[in-house]
Amino acid sequence: MTTTARVQGATVWLTGLPSAGKTTIARLLGERLKAEGHRVEVLDGDEIRRFLSAGLGFSREDRNSNVQRIGLVSEVLARNGVLCVVPVIAPYADSREAVRTRHDASATPYIEVHVATPVQVCSERDVKGLYARQAAGQLVGLTGVDDPYEPPLDPDLVLPTQDQTPRESADAVHAVLAERGLV
To answer: CA gyration radius for the chain?
Structure first.
């Protein structure tokens, strides 16, 4: 019988407003981690909503259900040695805390990163045209504009993306993973 060393997984949860840079940072971090030989999955909030959470709307209850589904998948993967990078708005503190609690219960590392881009900068970036649609009256319930976003009170890392490049942001997240012995 041979034994192999258990590979440590973790969840890196990137929360922030729409167009804050979460997905860009997640992809850059994921590419770097893969290049280093780690098992990595990027669980993009938009992709998860299309497939795993199809049929959910944007009510508080539906947003909570979506976050909990993503949290379950990320915890299971991380518990099994995968570095899970999760760029998702996750606007409510209680939903994010439930995900953290799930990770704590299984002793699975969880790193919360607040992609703290000001709403004005997000509106200028407007990657998906959401802010323009909201301003034109074609969209209601835009997180951070006419629907709440509860910023993390004590995140493991805060990224002011208006003051750094996406690569610098991804490098800062990688540094936290290294400090914790996860890479």
So the answer is: 16
Q: 156 in helix, strand or coil?
A: coil
Rounded distance, CA 38 to CA 35, Å?
A: 7
Q: What pLDDT digit, counting tens, does each position of 17-62 carry?
A: 999 999 999 999 999 999 999 999 999 988 888 888 888 888 889 9
Distance CA 49, CA 71 (A): 13
Residue 128 DSSP one-character state: T
Element (H, E) at 86: strand 83-87
Helices within 108-165 (DSSP H only): 119-125, 130-135
Mean pLDDT rounded to a whole number for the chain: 94
Task: Please give the DSSP secondary-structure letter assigned to residue 163.
Answer: G
